[in-house]
Write a structure and sequence with these properties.
mainly alpha, Rossmann fold, Helicase, Ruva Protein, domain 3, 4 domains, 21 helices, elongated, binds adenosine-5'-triphosphate, AAA+_ATPase
Length: 495
């Protein structure tokens, strides 16, 4: 199988290869043809607006190919974009006269522009002699002065059926098949994003379809963090840096680890690297304090330090920065021993919490964070899931922390046992008493009545004893195991 990403390999070459989006494509075609007929449209810029992976960029490339344009692709959020656009807007006219290929300016991320950049771009649109196409996920976040000068073309979120159509087309071309359930699962998870679906399909096929569920689960977390970090490392703007991680579904300490391990590839001057690491270590201090005091409001400061603090630390390497997952999160490359530990932990989560494998995988990620930051709660999970020390070490990834949690779990076990013995003792006493009282008379009704009288007294005493055990230390409640699925909230609500 080839290494070329399928999203590139199967990028539509012509508008007729695009899936759905008929209305949008009609509008784009009419607009570009107006340019070609020497009668530029009233609005010289176009904003293709819609959810990710629905064909906005693909449209621009297909149209350029069909109509013979050269694309100048620029990122609208880059502060230097304005100068470049200016250069092309000016240069293009002369080039046209010389008979060179027409230029089409494509500005990605128009919803991420600085206000000053926006004013300049708006002026350039007025002077433009070439089509300017912009792309945005949220058109209302495109600065107003730019929006007013552009025609909006809306792209729809693709349906599951559209996604499956796109995937099947690729499978045909590659001469491959995958089970129908896997295709449906990918289409469902993609949430209208064909790019994500194609990437998932390629990952699943290259990883062997038996592991499809696992691969998909890991990709879910990794996808958004890759995107967020790429944006974080591309900006010098503190505010934007804070914003890009908002949608990342990850605990701050995990995010810190991702940023930590990728930093050396982003900055190259030693003093800048040092500044970035200083910001990270302050974030780490906040995280530690949050854990000790239970004041999780500090997470916000920690996150600000690791995003804004890092973003403004110095001069970054230019161009594409590849983001690597930190070793601890890179589950797909675990050793055999780690894999078998992970599987045994997963089996326990599935059994005790009545979860399917995918949910159990998600739960495992949450447990990792809890084990790292909340040893008391972690100890309850150890008892509840009946984990052994090796499994605890696997989850927390640190021998010392594992032993602390293990010690706490032993105490809980001990208390549970004491409570169990007490209850057993009371039960036996109550039974003995009821047998004694019931002897003269046979018959169920009488037995029940006597047993009730005696057990009330005994149980009262027992409950007092149990309370005193409970008050003496840890809570020893377990979430309900049977019947309803137990969730992490059963635990979180208790501490
Ligand atoms: N409507 C579509 N028809 C055919 N292929 C599509 C369509 N939408 C997306 N794709 C596939 O997904 C890939 C990514 O799509 P594209 O780059 O056009 O997304 P986008 O809408 O520009 O997303 P973003 O907003 O994230 O930039 C394309 O290369 C193509 O392979």
């Amino acid at each position: 199988m080839t290494e070329v990403p399928w999203v590139e390999k199967y990028r539509p070459r012509r508008l007729s290869e695009m899936i759905n989006q008929t209305k949008a494509l009609g509008q784009v075609r009419a607009w570009i043809e107006a340019w070609l007929h020497g009668n530029p449209p009233k609005k010289k810029a176009l904003i293709l607006a819609g959810p990710p992976g629905t064909g906005k960029t693909a449209t621009v490339y297909a149209i350029a190919r069909e109509y013979g344009f050269e694309i100048i692709e620029l990122n609208a959020s880059d502060e230097r974009t304005f100068e470049k656009v200016e250069r092309y807007v000016q240069a293009a006219y002369t080039l046209d006269i010389l008979g060179k290929r027409r230029k089409l300016i494509f500005l990605d991320e128009a919803d991420n522009m600085e206000p000053s950049g926006a004013r300049e771009i708006a002026k350039l649109i007025d002077r433009a002699r070439n089509p300017i196409i912009m792309s945005a996920n949220h058109y209302w976040e495109v600065p107003r002065e730019v929006r007013n000068k552009a025609q909006i073309v809306e792209y729809k979120r693709l349906t599951q059926r559209d996604i499956i159509k796109g995937l099947v087309r690729i499978l045909h071309a590659e001469g491959l098949t995958v089970p129908k359930e896997v295709l449906y699962e990918i289409a469902k998870r993609a949430n209208g994003d064909l790019r994500a679906a194609i990437n998932d399909l390629q990952t699943v096929v290259s990883g062997g379809v038996e592991d499809a569920a696992d691969v998909l689960a890991y990709r879910d977390t990794e996808k958004s963090v890759f995107q967020a970090l790429a944006q974080l490392f591309a900006t010098d703007n503190a505010k934007r840096a804070k914003m890009v991680v908002l949608g990342v579904d990850m605990f701050p300490h995990e995010l810190l680890q991702w940023i930590d391990e990728n930093l050396p590839y982003v900055y190259y001057k030693p003093e800048d690297i040092a500044r970035a690491y200083e910001a990270l270590s302050r974030a780490d201090i906040y995280l530690g304090r949050a854990q000790r005091t239970g004041n999780y409001g500090l997470w916000k400061y920690a996150t600000d330090m690791m995003t804004a603090g890092v973003a403004v630390a110095g001069v970054k390497r230019k161009g594409f920065v590849r983001i690597y997952p930190p070793k601890t999160i890179k589950l797909l490359t675990e050793s055999k021993e780690e894999r078998s530990l992970r599987d045994s932990v997963l089996r326990k989560i599935m059994k005790e919490m009545h979860m399917a494998k995918l949910e159990a995988l998600e739960t495992l990620n949450v447990l990792k964070a809890i084990f790292e930051y909340n040893p008391d709660m972690a100890a309850h999970f150890v008892v509840y899931l009946d984990l052994d020390l090796k499994e605890v070490e696997f989850i927390v990834g640190d021998g010392e922390k594992a032993r602390t949690i293990w010690g706490k779990s032993m105490n809980i076990e001990k208390k549970l046992k004491e409570r169990g013995e007490l209850e057993e003792h009371v039960r036996v006493a109550a039974e003995r008493e009821s047998e004694k009282e019931a002897e003269p008379e046979e018959g169920e009704g009488a037995e029940e009545e006597t047993a009730e009288e005696i057990s009330e007294e005994e149980l009262q005493k027992a409950e007092e004893e149990i309370e005193s055990v409970e008050e003496s230390g840890e809570k020893i409640d377990k979430p309900k195991k049977k019947g309803k699925q137990a969730t992490l909230f059963d635990f979180l609500g208790k501490s």
